[in-house]
Design brief:
heterodimer, A: alpha+beta, Alpha-Beta Plaits, 4 strands, B: Aspartate Aminotransferase, domain 2, six-stranded mixed sheet, four-stranded antiparallel sheet, 9 helices, 10 strands
């Protein structure tokens, strides 16, 4: 997953995860990286290629988001 | 409830720089309404200076401090602070969110006027439960007024406790759950809980000190901290450490600012924040060792990454 959505609060992050999972999107809640958003809390990883579809879905469900980023955490390289 | 119920415009309140937002945000709001607020700075290890508190207390109506920092785990000497407040004729409110059920508190011998605690941490109660101790004779205005099932013929709020502060339908199921948690803790004994958490925290702090690039924040002495330990890993952000601990090791940590920005300014860890472990009664020495081992692996990985080997 190479995309990341940041939020203003964890309520919206958890709702976004529920909505995306229900529609079959690969997604995962992670701690929000500070360099992308100063709003502390959780962020949501997703497939960046499907961002239009994902954003439409979240907009339709009135999930408030802070920002959308092309982002792969370097921790993916941990082994 | 305690802050809004005690402070009026023109009053002065003294607090410390390591408070949680649960204290700081109501205080900042009251400040905007005309309450004078003095925030006394702490040392980098989270220690407070009794002299500075004492000086700030001149003419103050209230002193409010946490019992232990939710960031560094530093325990404050509430007995000593209570004596200072009493001498300066200020009320003293303690935020025991981190310590109720974990660090023994004797309200019979400590001159604390008010003490707020949450049910969902050391007392093993459900989220959304908690309590406020108010010493007899302290006058406090209710935050909420309404039905109490008492004094029903009168359309003004009863003045007697606890009805003065307990309007509306109580969360009986939650309170019963909290009662079960309290009985459980009483069965173990708070001293035993504290000894267990102290053993685990000390085990972690001692082992983490041996790992290069890992820096543990807060007090050096085991007796000055509760089961909370905050640390940083040079070259790896708190959120990265938290993600690796979770996904690769199944270890839960809290990362970031922990709702206490000025506490991090005190520790020198603002705005990055820290990684925090909260060792509790149900944790074991083997789990502490697993966490230390995970940190070693994370440090080894980041060192390799920094050397460009990946």
């Amino acid at each position: 997953m190479d995309g990341l959505i940041s939020f203003f609060g964890s309520h919206h992050a958890i709702r976004a995860e529920t909505v995306l999972k229900r529609h079959g999107h690969a997604t995962r809640l992670v701690p929000g990286p500070r360099e992308l958003s100063p709003n502390c809390g959780v962020a949501l990883r997703f497939e960046y290629a499907r961002r239009d579809e994902v954003l439409a879905l979240l907009g339709d469900r009135r999930v408030r988001i802070d920002g959308v980023h092309l982002y792969t955490p370097r921790t993916d390289g941990f082994s | 409830m305690a802050l809004a119920g005690l402070l009026r415009p023109g009053d002065r309140v003294v607090t410390t720089a390591i408070e949680h937002n649960s204290v700081m945000r109501p205080l900042r709001h009251l400040e905007s309404l005309g309450v004078a607020l003095t925030v006394v700075p702490c040392g980098r290890d989270g220690a407070i200076s009794a002299e500075r508190i004492d000086a700030a207390l001149q003419g103050a109506r209230l002193l409010v401090t946490t019992h232990a920092s939710n960031v560094s785990g530093a325990i404050l000497p509430i007995g000593e602070l209570a004596a200072l407040a009493q001498r300066r004729r200020a009320l003293y409110l303690v935020d025991a969110a981190q310590t109720a059920g974990i660090v023994p508190i004797d309200l019979g011998t400590t001159e604390v006027d008010l003490l707020a605690f949450t049910g969902h941490k050391g007392l093993f109660g459900p989220p959304g439960t908690g309590g406020l101790y108010v010493r007899e004779g302290v006058e406090i205005q209710p935050l909420v007024r309404g039905g109490t099932g008492s004094d029903s013929a009168h359309e003004v709020q009863p003045a007697f406790m606890p009805d003065a502060l307990e309007s509306g339908t109580l969360n009986v199921a939650g309170i019963a759950g909290l009662g079960a948690g309290v009985r459980f803790v009483a069965g173990i004994g708070v001293d035993a809980v504290q000894a267990h958490e102290r053993r685990l925290a000390t085990r972690f702090v001692d082992a983490a000190a041996e790992i290069p690039r890992v820096m543990v924040h807060g007090p050096a002495g085991a007796a000055e901290r509760c089961g909370i330990v905050s640390f940083s890993v040079a070259g790896v952000s708190p959120s990265e450490v938290g993600l690796l601990l979770d996904e690769s090791f199944g270890i839960m940590a809290r990362t970031g600012l922990h709702c206490a920005p000025s506490a991090h300014r005190t520790l020198g860890t603002f705005p990055a924040g820290t990684v925090r472990f909260g060792f509790g009664w149900f944790n074991t020495a083997a789990e502490v060792d697993a966490a230390v081992d995970a940190l070693r692996q994370i440090v080894a990985w980041s060192t390799k990454a920094a050397a460009g080997a990946m």
